[in-house]
Specification:
CATH class of the largest domain: Alpha Beta
Strand order of the largest sheet: 3-1-2-4-5-6
Number of strands: 17
Structural class: alpha+beta
Shape: globular
Number of helices: 8
Largest sheet: 6 strands, mixed
Amino acid sequence: MTRRSKSNEQTRHFRIGVVSVSLTMPMSGLLEQYTSLYRGFQIDGPDVRAIRVQVAPTRFSPWHRRRYVVSVNDRVQFEPARLEEVLPYVDWAVNWEVPRVMPEYLQLHASSMEVDGLGVIFPGESGSGKSTLTAGLLARGWRYLCDEFALIHADTLELGPYPRAICIKRPSYPVIESIGLKLHGNRHYLKGSKGYVGFVSPLEVRSDAVGKTCPIRYVIFPKYTQGAEPTLVPISRADAAFALHRVCFNLLKCRAVGLDVLAAMVRGASCYRLISGEIQRTCDVVQRLVVGDHQSRAISA
Protein backbone atom coordinates (compact mmCIF):
# COMPACT_ATOMS: atom_id res chain seq x y z
CA MET A 1 0.00 0.00 0.00
CA THR A 2 1.24 3.48 -0.83
CA ARG A 3 1.03 6.17 1.80
CA ARG A 4 -0.16 9.65 1.06
CA SER A 5 2.16 12.63 0.93
CA LYS A 6 3.50 13.87 4.25
CA SER A 7 3.26 17.51 3.16
CA ASN A 8 0.11 18.14 5.24
CA GLU A 9 1.26 16.37 8.40
CA GLN A 10 1.12 18.25 11.69
CA THR A 11 2.76 17.41 15.00
CA ARG A 12 1.57 18.27 18.52
CA HIS A 13 3.40 17.64 21.76
CA PHE A 14 1.99 16.65 25.15
CA ARG A 15 3.28 15.92 28.65
CA ILE A 16 0.67 13.70 30.27
CA GLY A 17 2.00 13.37 33.80
CA VAL A 18 5.29 11.46 33.62
CA VAL A 19 4.61 10.34 30.03
CA SER A 20 5.47 12.59 27.06
CA VAL A 21 3.90 12.11 23.63
CA SER A 22 4.54 13.65 20.22
CA LEU A 23 1.69 12.92 17.81
CA THR A 24 2.00 13.38 14.05
CA MET A 25 -0.85 12.93 11.59
CA PRO A 26 -2.23 14.57 8.45
CA MET A 27 -5.89 14.33 9.49
CA SER A 28 -6.34 17.77 11.03
CA GLY A 29 -9.83 17.05 12.38
CA LEU A 30 -8.68 13.98 14.30
CA LEU A 31 -5.58 15.77 15.56
CA GLU A 32 -7.79 18.56 16.87
CA GLN A 33 -9.93 15.99 18.70
CA TYR A 34 -6.86 14.54 20.42
CA THR A 35 -5.57 18.03 21.22
CA SER A 36 -8.93 18.99 22.68
CA LEU A 37 -8.99 15.84 24.82
CA TYR A 38 -5.47 16.54 26.15
CA ARG A 39 -5.50 20.33 25.94
CA GLY A 40 -4.38 20.82 29.51
CA PHE A 41 -1.28 18.72 28.82
CA GLN A 42 -0.09 20.30 25.55
CA ILE A 43 3.45 21.70 25.52
CA ASP A 44 5.27 23.88 23.00
CA GLY A 45 7.98 21.50 21.88
CA PRO A 46 9.02 17.84 22.00
CA ASP A 47 10.33 16.25 25.17
CA VAL A 48 13.62 14.41 24.75
CA ARG A 49 11.98 11.19 25.98
CA ALA A 50 8.72 11.64 24.10
CA ILE A 51 6.95 8.61 22.66
CA ARG A 52 6.59 9.49 18.97
CA VAL A 53 3.32 8.32 17.45
CA GLN A 54 2.68 8.70 13.73
CA VAL A 55 -0.65 8.09 12.00
CA ALA A 56 -0.75 7.68 8.22
CA PRO A 57 -3.77 7.02 6.05
CA THR A 58 -3.24 4.71 3.11
CA ARG A 59 -4.62 4.98 -0.40
CA PHE A 60 -7.99 3.33 -0.75
CA SER A 61 -7.98 -0.01 -2.46
CA PRO A 62 -10.85 -2.50 -2.76
CA TRP A 63 -8.32 -5.27 -2.10
CA HIS A 64 -7.18 -3.88 1.26
CA ARG A 65 -9.48 -3.53 4.25
CA ARG A 66 -7.08 -1.58 6.45
CA ARG A 67 -6.96 2.14 5.84
CA TYR A 68 -4.64 3.57 8.55
CA VAL A 69 -1.23 2.81 10.01
CA VAL A 70 -0.35 3.74 13.61
CA SER A 71 3.40 3.67 14.23
CA VAL A 72 5.28 4.31 17.43
CA ASN A 73 8.91 5.44 17.35
CA ASP A 74 9.05 4.46 13.65
CA ARG A 75 7.68 0.93 14.17
CA VAL A 76 4.26 -0.05 12.83
CA GLN A 77 2.13 -0.98 15.83
CA PHE A 78 -1.48 -1.11 14.61
CA GLU A 79 -3.44 -0.96 11.36
CA PRO A 80 -7.00 0.12 12.15
CA ALA A 81 -9.56 -0.10 9.38
CA ARG A 82 -11.78 2.84 10.30
CA LEU A 83 -11.20 6.46 11.23
CA GLU A 84 -13.25 6.09 14.44
CA GLU A 85 -10.74 3.47 15.63
CA VAL A 86 -7.64 5.63 15.25
CA LEU A 87 -7.58 7.61 18.53
CA PRO A 88 -8.08 4.53 20.75
CA TYR A 89 -5.20 2.89 18.86
CA VAL A 90 -3.05 5.98 19.42
CA ASP A 91 -3.63 5.57 23.17
CA TRP A 92 -2.85 1.85 22.92
CA ALA A 93 0.37 2.59 21.02
CA VAL A 94 1.54 4.90 23.80
CA ASN A 95 0.60 2.37 26.48
CA TRP A 96 2.60 -0.39 24.79
CA GLU A 97 5.66 1.82 24.55
CA VAL A 98 5.76 3.12 28.13
CA PRO A 99 7.60 0.08 29.61
CA ARG A 100 10.25 0.21 26.90
CA VAL A 101 11.09 3.92 27.13
CA MET A 102 10.53 4.27 30.89
CA PRO A 103 12.15 1.17 32.47
CA GLU A 104 12.46 2.96 35.80
CA TYR A 105 8.75 2.31 36.31
CA LEU A 106 7.06 -1.00 37.05
CA GLN A 107 3.82 -0.97 35.07
CA LEU A 108 0.73 -2.68 36.50
CA HIS A 109 -2.69 -3.14 34.90
CA ALA A 110 -4.48 -1.06 37.50
CA SER A 111 -6.24 2.24 37.89
CA SER A 112 -4.60 4.60 40.34
CA MET A 113 -5.81 7.52 42.45
CA GLU A 114 -4.50 9.91 45.08
CA VAL A 115 -6.38 11.19 48.10
CA ASP A 116 -4.84 13.40 50.79
CA GLY A 117 -1.38 12.58 49.46
CA LEU A 118 -1.90 8.81 49.67
CA GLY A 119 -1.82 6.52 46.64
CA VAL A 120 -4.53 3.91 46.01
CA ILE A 121 -4.28 1.35 43.22
CA PHE A 122 -7.08 -0.86 41.87
CA PRO A 123 -5.46 -3.76 39.97
CA GLY A 124 -7.53 -5.99 37.76
CA GLU A 125 -8.19 -7.36 34.32
CA SER A 126 -10.46 -5.68 31.78
CA GLY A 127 -14.08 -5.86 32.90
CA SER A 128 -13.34 -5.66 36.63
CA GLY A 129 -14.84 -2.17 36.87
CA LYS A 130 -11.61 -0.19 37.35
CA SER A 131 -12.49 2.74 35.10
CA THR A 132 -16.04 3.18 36.39
CA LEU A 133 -14.85 3.05 40.00
CA THR A 134 -12.11 5.56 39.19
CA ALA A 135 -14.65 7.92 37.62
CA GLY A 136 -16.91 7.58 40.65
CA LEU A 137 -14.12 8.47 43.07
CA LEU A 138 -12.98 11.33 40.83
CA ALA A 139 -16.49 12.77 41.02
CA ARG A 140 -16.18 12.67 44.83
CA GLY A 141 -13.02 14.76 44.92
CA TRP A 142 -10.31 12.13 44.69
CA ARG A 143 -7.40 13.06 42.46
CA TYR A 144 -6.77 11.09 39.32
CA LEU A 145 -3.53 9.38 38.31
CA CYS A 146 -4.58 6.85 35.65
CA ASP A 147 -7.50 4.57 34.76
CA GLU A 148 -5.40 1.86 33.13
CA PHE A 149 -1.97 1.73 34.79
CA ALA A 150 -0.17 2.08 38.05
CA LEU A 151 3.34 3.32 37.31
CA ILE A 152 5.54 2.49 40.30
CA HIS A 153 9.00 4.03 40.42
CA ALA A 154 11.46 1.23 41.09
CA ASP A 155 13.65 3.35 43.39
CA THR A 156 11.14 5.40 45.37
CA LEU A 157 8.16 2.96 45.21
CA GLU A 158 5.94 5.98 44.51
CA LEU A 159 3.10 6.22 42.02
CA GLY A 160 3.71 8.40 39.00
CA PRO A 161 0.76 10.20 37.39
CA TYR A 162 -0.26 9.30 33.84
CA PRO A 163 -3.63 11.07 33.62
CA ARG A 164 -4.77 9.76 30.25
CA ALA A 165 -8.42 10.34 29.42
CA ILE A 166 -10.67 7.86 31.23
CA CYS A 167 -12.01 5.31 28.75
CA ILE A 168 -15.67 4.45 29.33
CA LYS A 169 -17.42 1.57 27.56
CA ARG A 170 -20.85 2.20 26.09
CA PRO A 171 -22.76 0.05 28.68
CA SER A 172 -21.34 2.29 31.42
CA TYR A 173 -22.48 5.59 29.85
CA PRO A 174 -25.62 5.78 32.05
CA VAL A 175 -23.52 5.17 35.17
CA ILE A 176 -21.17 8.01 34.24
CA GLU A 177 -24.10 10.33 33.63
CA SER A 178 -25.64 9.34 36.98
CA ILE A 179 -22.55 10.56 38.87
CA GLY A 180 -22.54 13.88 37.05
CA LEU A 181 -19.69 13.33 34.57
CA LYS A 182 -19.81 13.93 30.82
CA LEU A 183 -18.10 12.29 27.89
CA HIS A 184 -15.69 14.68 26.21
CA GLY A 185 -17.34 16.27 23.19
CA ASN A 186 -20.06 13.63 23.35
CA ARG A 187 -17.90 11.69 20.89
CA HIS A 188 -17.75 7.93 20.52
CA TYR A 189 -14.93 5.79 19.20
CA LEU A 190 -14.52 2.13 18.35
CA LYS A 191 -12.00 0.27 20.52
CA GLY A 192 -11.53 -3.27 19.25
CA SER A 193 -13.41 -5.96 21.14
CA LYS A 194 -14.56 -3.41 23.74
CA GLY A 195 -16.92 -1.89 21.19
CA TYR A 196 -17.83 1.77 21.33
CA VAL A 197 -16.24 3.92 24.02
CA GLY A 198 -16.19 7.54 25.10
CA PHE A 199 -13.61 9.49 27.08
CA VAL A 200 -13.81 11.59 30.22
CA SER A 201 -11.17 14.31 30.48
CA PRO A 202 -10.18 14.68 34.16
CA LEU A 203 -9.42 18.39 33.77
CA GLU A 204 -13.00 18.93 32.59
CA VAL A 205 -14.20 17.51 35.90
CA ARG A 206 -12.12 19.89 38.07
CA SER A 207 -9.08 22.04 37.49
CA ASP A 208 -7.28 20.26 40.35
CA ALA A 209 -8.42 16.76 39.39
CA VAL A 210 -4.96 15.39 38.56
CA GLY A 211 -2.92 13.98 41.43
CA LYS A 212 0.80 14.15 42.07
CA THR A 213 3.50 11.58 42.73
CA CYS A 214 2.66 9.85 46.00
CA PRO A 215 3.40 6.78 48.15
CA ILE A 216 1.13 3.74 47.80
CA ARG A 217 -0.93 3.04 50.89
CA TYR A 218 -3.77 0.85 49.59
CA VAL A 219 -3.94 -2.00 47.09
CA ILE A 220 -7.58 -2.90 46.35
CA PHE A 221 -8.54 -5.60 43.83
CA PRO A 222 -12.04 -4.78 42.50
CA LYS A 223 -14.44 -7.23 40.93
CA TYR A 224 -17.76 -5.95 39.70
CA THR A 225 -20.78 -8.17 40.33
CA GLN A 226 -24.15 -6.84 39.28
CA GLY A 227 -26.49 -6.45 42.23
CA ALA A 228 -23.81 -7.35 44.79
CA GLU A 229 -23.52 -5.67 48.16
CA PRO A 230 -20.19 -3.77 48.06
CA THR A 231 -17.77 -5.44 50.45
CA LEU A 232 -14.09 -5.08 51.32
CA VAL A 233 -12.21 -8.21 52.38
CA PRO A 234 -8.69 -7.84 53.83
CA ILE A 235 -6.01 -10.04 52.25
CA SER A 236 -2.42 -10.70 53.20
CA ARG A 237 0.43 -8.75 51.63
CA ALA A 238 1.82 -12.03 50.30
CA ASP A 239 -1.45 -12.78 48.51
CA ALA A 240 -1.50 -9.25 47.15
CA ALA A 241 2.06 -9.48 45.81
CA PHE A 242 1.27 -12.80 44.13
CA ALA A 243 -1.84 -11.35 42.48
CA LEU A 244 0.03 -8.21 41.40
CA HIS A 245 2.71 -10.12 39.54
CA ARG A 246 0.01 -11.52 37.26
CA VAL A 247 -1.04 -8.02 36.14
CA CYS A 248 2.47 -6.65 35.66
CA PHE A 249 3.41 -5.72 32.09
CA ASN A 250 7.18 -5.45 32.51
CA LEU A 251 8.09 -7.69 35.43
CA LEU A 252 11.30 -8.84 33.72
CA LYS A 253 12.08 -5.62 31.86
CA CYS A 254 11.97 -3.12 34.71
CA ARG A 255 15.45 -1.85 35.53
CA ALA A 256 15.05 -3.30 39.03
CA VAL A 257 13.94 -6.82 39.95
CA GLY A 258 10.19 -6.60 39.49
CA LEU A 259 9.28 -9.05 42.25
CA ASP A 260 11.46 -7.15 44.71
CA VAL A 261 9.68 -3.90 43.80
CA LEU A 262 6.27 -5.51 44.33
CA ALA A 263 7.30 -7.03 47.66
CA ALA A 264 8.71 -3.73 48.94
CA MET A 265 5.65 -1.83 47.76
CA VAL A 266 3.05 -4.04 49.46
CA ARG A 267 4.99 -3.98 52.75
CA GLY A 268 3.85 -0.38 53.14
CA ALA A 269 0.27 -0.93 51.97
CA SER A 270 -3.02 -2.25 53.27
CA CYS A 271 -4.44 -4.82 50.87
CA TYR A 272 -8.06 -5.79 50.12
CA ARG A 273 -10.37 -7.47 47.65
CA LEU A 274 -13.43 -5.43 46.75
CA ILE A 275 -16.74 -6.89 45.66
CA SER A 276 -18.26 -3.91 43.88
CA GLY A 277 -21.83 -3.29 42.89
CA GLU A 278 -23.86 -0.10 42.49
CA ILE A 279 -21.36 2.71 41.94
CA GLN A 280 -22.38 5.13 44.70
CA ARG A 281 -22.54 2.46 47.39
CA THR A 282 -19.23 1.01 46.21
CA CYS A 283 -17.60 4.44 46.41
CA ASP A 284 -19.07 4.85 49.93
CA VAL A 285 -17.32 1.66 51.05
CA VAL A 286 -13.96 2.64 49.57
CA GLN A 287 -14.22 6.21 50.82
CA ARG A 288 -14.95 5.09 54.39
CA LEU A 289 -11.89 2.84 54.34
CA VAL A 290 -9.36 5.29 52.96
CA VAL A 291 -10.58 8.58 54.39
CA GLY A 292 -11.51 6.97 57.72
CA ASP A 293 -8.06 5.38 58.07
CA HIS A 294 -6.38 8.66 57.18
CA GLN A 295 -8.38 10.59 59.78
CA SER A 296 -7.64 7.95 62.43
CA ARG A 297 -3.91 8.13 61.74
CA ALA A 298 -4.01 11.93 61.89
CA ILE A 299 -5.71 11.83 65.28
CA SER A 300 -3.24 9.23 66.58
CA ALA A 301 -0.30 11.34 65.40
